[in-house]
Amino acid sequence: MTDSSRSARRLAAAMGTMGALHFLAPRPFDALIPARLPGRARTWTYLSGAAELACAAAVAVPATRGKGALATAGLMAAVFPANIKMARDWRKRALPLRAAAYGRLPLQAPMIAYALKVARDAR
Known about the structure:
By secondary structure, this protein is mainly alpha-helical.
């Protein structure tokens, strides 16, 4: 297995795991949904979980890997405001929870870069 294939499998596994968690344990994700979005938070949780599962499937298949990885990078950028909301909402929680919320913010950029690398490698 090549390094690019391993990278794609890791990305697909990460997206698949996170997508499944949106359905298996949706409550924490509901809290990340900005109130200004129309409809119920749970609907947005399920929609974002479905999008993550679709990205995982696209990345897992070599024929759609490049487009799937680009979609993954776009999705990660699109959900970044939810990470900001989480950090704001958790600013008065216990230190370990605050650290987790704030720690997610700078990790989004390398995750997007990783997805873009998988897309480049798929060409």
